[in-house]
Structures are given as structure tokens and as C-alpha cells.
Amino acid sequence: MSRGGGRGGGRGGRGGGRGGRPGLPWDDTDEPDARPSELFPPYVVPTARDLNTTEYNGVQYFLLLRHQIHSSPLYTSKRTSLIDPNAPRKTYGRDQMNALYDVKSKASVDPFSAMPTYSQRFSRPERALPEWSSRPVCREMYPPELLDTVDSADASGVRKRRKLELSKVNALPNAEEAFGMPAIEGEDDGVPVDGKHILERLDALRDDEGDDVGDAEDDEGLEEEEEDEVYDDEDAGDYDAEGYFDNGDEGGDDYGDGDDGEGTY
Amino acid sequence: MFVTKHAAELCALLVNDLYGELPSRILAALFAKGRSNIAQLGLYTQLGPRQIRNGLGVLNQQNLLYHHTDTNTKRTTYEANPGACYNLVRSGKILEMIDSQYGTAERDLVQTLLLLGYARIAELTHAYQSRAPTSNGHANGHGANGSSSGLIESEAELHNVLSHLIRCEIIETVRPQSFRNPTDVYHEIEADVTKTAPGEKATKTKIDQQRQIMEQYRSFRDQPTALKRQLDQFGGPVTKRRKLESGSGEDDRAMDYDIPPLNPNVVVRVNYEKCLVELRSHRLASFAMDTLGEVTGEVYRTLLGLLTSEVSRCRADPFLGEEAITHQAAVTTMDVYEHLDEAVNVAAGIGKAPKDKIDYQSAEKILTAPAGNDTFAGDSDDDAAGGAFDSDDDSDDMGRHGSFSRKSRSVSKTNGGKPKVTFEDAATSTDNRLDQMRQHLLLLSESKYRFVRHCGTQGRGQWTVDFDQVMERLRDTELDASIEQSFGRHGLRLTRILREKGKLDEKMLPSAALMKKTDVQAKMLAMQMAGLVDVQEVPKDNTRVANRTLFFWFFDRDRSQAQILDDLYKAMVRCLQTLQVERHRERNILSFVERKDVMGKEEEVMTAEHYNKYNRHLEEQNKLLGQMMRLDEVVSIFRDY
What we know:
Chain A is an all-alpha fold.
């Protein structure tokens, strides 16, 4: 059964006529359409159907979990890349990949936002490394070489007994809450909230910074408060954007001798 | 698990979104380079060892790593756990499933465990104890919200919930060995068993060795459920696992009060494999709902819930092979009836046909063994089934289902007729309801998707599900849908022909598909470029010229599934990237919302414009994540269920 021989009109026959040029499967009779194509051809954009309740709940639980993880001590919020995700990029190889990171340094600080402003004290502090000191770890689950990192003893060699805490976050922020009135945590004692009142509260918060307030919001507030103090006391002149939000135990001095991490505790 | 580039990218992006940049960079390096130690990771990522240690610590805490320390050299190597990383996508769905099927308290606990990775029971207890007073304090402000939330409030409740979930295998125990790669463990056991001491002769037979390897490996796999078995021994009869209504859920927990105290030193985490089993049941039920109707879907859901309570994973372990699923559970009609939600109106959703039009014999046909995979087995009528039935008296399946013999067949026949009679003279509502529900089960077994198999006659009929076959059908449906979506009706027709015929000569294809030759060629080429079909050239002689060559088109199911899977990963990556871009675009508003003082203070400053922007962003985020979870549903069908 020779290809195209008997059928005549078949592709193979034509192929034979051209002197043995293989009858390739894409070699059909149609001439390619050389006219310029329409710039914006009509296109039916497929739209996904709306989420049903189950899916919506799933998404909400995912977002809530994400929110909780972000407020947990193991989350490293610091981003060291300067990439604008709008700009398309391609990376080839490890070196280019690594070059994307660690570019946020003193040299690349944006002079317009680098100056500390009052409102910055309310923004979420950046954390470059997870904070292990605030949660207990199961030592037997870690390889021995990580133990010093995750469960370090303090200077006297005693390990503190840490307590596990549940996440304080149990609701997602939604637009109504963020822009409307209703309660924030620690503010749910039914007092109507107005600007003046908030200011008073903030003042009060500054005053009783020594108190041990259980609330996470207040805790974080305190931390910042202390950092403010540090900044004021040292008055080093330069605003050290790198070390500003770090705690004392993971200070900026590690950046220099990053090669041996053990000795620095 | 084989990881493609897009799967690795997806895992890294997910970790980046959830746990931050540092762990994500390390994970990406682990995916790209495979098993590494800390020094190598430093080389790959150009991070300091201190950062790497911290990042690895986080990954380890969230169960995203395998690690192993060699006992001789004391060197530790790390390896990414792609399954666990991918499961992060499912956390939302799992929480939703736990919430709807087990209850809010259970969801609370599972969510905490997902957040923590794993935790010691003593510490969990402590944490919940310390939360109790604060939640009371909040109750003042939140009013009824606090009390009716259904969250865990006391230590006793925590223990109840915990042991309930452990017995349902949703929560498993963690041991240091859990962080070993199972493949490694298997090979180690294998080397250990087959090793012969110097001078000793290899006396053990191959089969013996194989059995020994299997035993040891199985004991490794069963370690996480040791606590469950222990609890089962204490707890007497198996707990009713479903939370049917809020009321009976409370009762369940109340019944469990005499459970033994849990060892506080045990470390627990969420068992994704069991969660997947639950998600699969959910998916199958909604599949049945789509094909047969809502009520039938509900009945099927109940049936699946009963059947899968002892199933701990969807697919058998690759090393244990078929052994793991040899025994197949069956449930009786009465069981299903007892567990069916009272609110389901079983009278709806079944057609009415005159009695004499129904062929009871074939409707009530009992299949003791799973039918063959091909479609024609379905219409081989009861002669064949009856013959198999008669001859197979001593087969294993028969032994399991015990006592029924030829006589039971006649029972089944009368069974079909009898309800009609009882319906008319007794007319009790329960009987009526039971009968109607039974009709739904028969409907399910008759469907071309073979949702259930009628496998026995005890308790008004026993039913079982051949998950392999049902999932195969579901996979086919998904594959068809995806091909139709991208290549239209004709593409689907061509691939179906190829699936049926195997390899097909190019010249046969147009006549088989009743299409024009050029159309067929264009379609096939498009599909070849997408990796769905491929062509094999068989030259007739040594010259290998085209007109002396046969071209066979074929459709490789496994390959096209892998292809579709990779496309799905890619689509999910795109969803996450789009979300990132959106977040970057709205970063000012988002960081503003995250500020602690936002509310009240800036109230007058923020305009409706910002409010709308933020709201729109939340909606977009929901849509993107929802899309990702839908894609994950398809991924699960192809890969995990």
C-alpha cells in the first residue's frame, strides 16, 4: 500500500510530485494567510463562576490561617528584594536568582520614606529572623545542629521554660472593620471611639509601659516604645534602618560575621 | 513524588506567602538542588549560616522538610517534602471540611495545629488553659459572640476533641522518624534485611526477605497511628464519628468522657492523608450530586462517610503495593439509613415507574467482585453475573461476605418485590423512608459511573465502593472536560477514538472520526503540540521516506495527565503571582490596614475611595484564591485521590 499512490488526491501523491520532499503532516494545501491580523480581535473572556459558600468558607479559612501565621513569631516578614512585581523578569541560573535578594540595604534605602515618622510606630515591625524565644520547641524533632538556633540557652546556660500561646488573631480584617468604627482588640469595652479618645488611649499606653499587659496589640506597642527609647538614648545620629526594628539579641552586629553563627548568642 | 519546575515554583511561592521570604529561598534551593547540608545551602543561596539555620528551623517546625543525620558521620542532610508543601494550598479546604463535618471545636484545634506545625500535648493543654480566662474577658465585650462560638474552652474539652480526632486519624503522632524520607527508610530496611554478615551464607529466600522488608516498613508506616490504636482499645466501640447535628455532636463528646488521659509528652500534627480521604468523599458526593441529583448525593455522602471511616489513605503506599487495600469494607442499607440526616427528603429525586416495567432481577443484581474495567462488562446481563456467582463459591470475596450462597440470590429477588407489599399494607413512615433511600442506592449502583456496588444481601443489601474504578471514571470526565475546553468537540472526539482504538493509522482517522482530512490533521497537530497525542512513525523499508512510512497516532493517558497536572501547577503559580502583583499595587492601603491604630484615628482621613479600593482588593483576592482551590481540586483528582 503505497502512500498516496492509489488515492491520487492524497497528500503523498503531491509529495512525490515535488521530487521526494517528505509529505509532512503540516504540509497541507492551504496557503498561509498573510494578511495582518486584527490588532484586538474579539475575544470571549472566560469568567469564572462565583464562589459557592463552601469555597468561600475555604478561602476565608485559608486567609485567616495566613493572617494567624503572619502574626506568629516564626514569620519572617522582612523582604530583602526590591523587585517591583509589575515588571516582568526572567532569571537564569543561581547567581541571577540570588542577586534579586538582599538588595534592600542602607545603600538602597528610599530617602523619602526612610526618615522615621510618627505614623511608622503603628506599622508592623519587620522581622528578619524568626523568633524562637517565645515558643517551645520539641527538641527531639530537630537535628542536633539546629538545636542551638531553635532552642538556645541564655547566657547563664539555663533554658527558660517557654509557654505555648494560641494565636490572638481570630478574625480577618475586613473593610468594614478597617474603615468603620467597630471594635479593635483591647478597645471592646463599649466606649464610643473617636479620634480624641484614641489619642488619649495612646498617651495612656505610653505611660504605663512597664505594666505587663497580656494583649498582643499592647505588647507590640510596648516593644516599639522601648525601641523608641533606645533610639532616643543612643542618639547615634544615623538612622539605622537595618537595626532599627531588630531586638537586642539579634542585633546588627551579626551581619558582619555571618559565617560562624554559633558564637554570637 | 516527581516534582516539575512549576510544582517547585508553586511550593516556593506558597511558603513565601505564608511563612516569609527566608524559608522560601531555602526551600527553592532545596527543590532545585536536592538533598543538601547547611554548607551546601549556604553556597546555593548565598545566605549566612545563621539565617539558613533559622529558615531550616521554620521549615522543620512546619513539617515541610525531611532531614536525616547520619549516625556515623554526624552530618545532617535536608530535603524538601513536596507533598507537605503542596498541602499548604489545601489548608483552607481542610479547615472548612473539619468545620462542617466535625464541628467548630475540632476546627479550632486543627487550625491551631496547622499554625504551629506540630505541638506537644502538654503544651497544647497549657495554651488552651491560659486562653480560657481571656476568652471570658472578651465575652463581655463581644456579648453572645464569645459564648456561642463553639471554641474549645476547657482542658477536658480539649482532651475530648483531641482524642476524638486522633481516633478519626485526623491527628497523628509525630516521632523523630517522621522526618525521614519514606523512600530512604524503605531502602535502608531493604539493605538491612538483605545484608549478610561476612562468612555467612545467604540462606533466606527472596520471598522471605521481601516479607520481612514489608513487615518492617509497615511498622514504620503505622507508627503515627499507634496512639489511635491504643485509644481504640480503651475506648471500647468505635465512636460515632460524624457530627450529624449540633445536638448529637455534643452527645458524642459527652459519651467520650471516660477516655483515658493522653500521654502529655506525645507530639501531634495534622494527618493530611486522612484529610484527603475526607475531601475525596466530599468530591465524589458532589460528583454524584451533579450526575444524579441532590438527594442521591446526600445518600452517597453518608455511605462514603461510613465506608471510609477505616480508610486511612486514598492511594496505597507505593512500597506496600496492593496489600494495603486487600480487604474492602461494606455497609448495609440499615447502617446508611441510621446515619442519614433526618432532614434529607429521600422521596425526592427518584423517578416513578410502573412495577411491571422494572426488571428487579437485574436491578438487584449482586456483584461480588469489582466488575472489569471495560465498559462492556456493564451490559453483560445477569447470566454472566449469575454464572460467576455460582462458580465462585470458594473465592476470597465470598469467604469475606460469609454466609450467603445460592439461596441468597433468591432472597435478593424477593427482596426486590417485598418492599412494595410492605409499603402498601404496613405503610409505616420509616419503612417507606428506608425503601426510598434504598432506591437511591440502587440508582447509584446502576449509574454508568459505578458509584457503588451491590455486594451482598445482609441488612437489606450490602454496598461497597470500588474507589479505583469510580475515580478512574471521574478522572476520565475531568480529562474529557479539559480536552473539550481547549480543543473543542472535535478534539475530544479524536482523542476518544484514539483512547478506544489504541494506536491508529493516520489514514484511518478521518473516516473513523467522520471529519475532513485537513481538519483532522490540523486538530491532531494542535493537540500534538500541546502534548496530548503523539505520532509514531513505522518505516516500511530502509529508505524511510514519508510515503513509505506508516504514521500511527496514539493517546498516552498517563503522559497527558502529567501534562495537564503541570499546566494546572502553572495556572496556580499564575494565580499566586497575580495576587502578589495586586498586593503590590495596593500596598499602601494594605499596610495601612495592618497598622495598629488605623481605626478611629484615621477615620476621617480615609475616604470612600480607599474603602472601595480595599473592598475590591479583598474580592479579587477571594476570587484568585478560590480559583486556585478549584484548580487544586482537579490536581487532587489526577494525583491524589
